Amino acid sequence: MRRILLPLFLGLALFACSDSDEGPVKSEAAKAAEADPVGHMRAFIAEFEAKPEHTDNVVEVQHLLVSFDGKAGGATRTKDQAEQLAAELYADIIGTGDFNALVKEHTDDAYPGEYTMSLDGSAGRPRTGMVQAFGDCGWRLQVGEVGIAAYDATKSPYGWHIVKRIR
Prior knowledge:
single chain, alpha+beta, Chitinase A, domain 3, five-stranded mixed β-sheet, 6 helices
């Protein structure tokens, strides 16, 4: 009986807390990201880069590349426009956006943007064969988590990578 009542109670509690017809309840992080997308993304990146890497040998990720003029994918936006777009897409993702659909619509790389990387080269591409920030991001994520590698002329020369670990 307890197994039946607990999910029912939790479902009713979520329904009662929702904002009428506005869809799913948004987290505080999603609300903050909507208010100041670039500031929130920069703060997230600073925290994320301090997160320790895990020791899994293989990771599979999907990424959304937001590039700018002259960097990749024929993008014509400015660097500032690319950062703003990356921040808005990240805010959408943490606010319950469909990651795969956003990749399909917005990536400046080839869709679906899925890569398998390994530390020892035994599966997919070796980590060292990828852009450094892309691998650094992938090894900080648990399955289902999303992270960001910010544009950096050396570590992430193509733009902002929004990365989701899928396996």
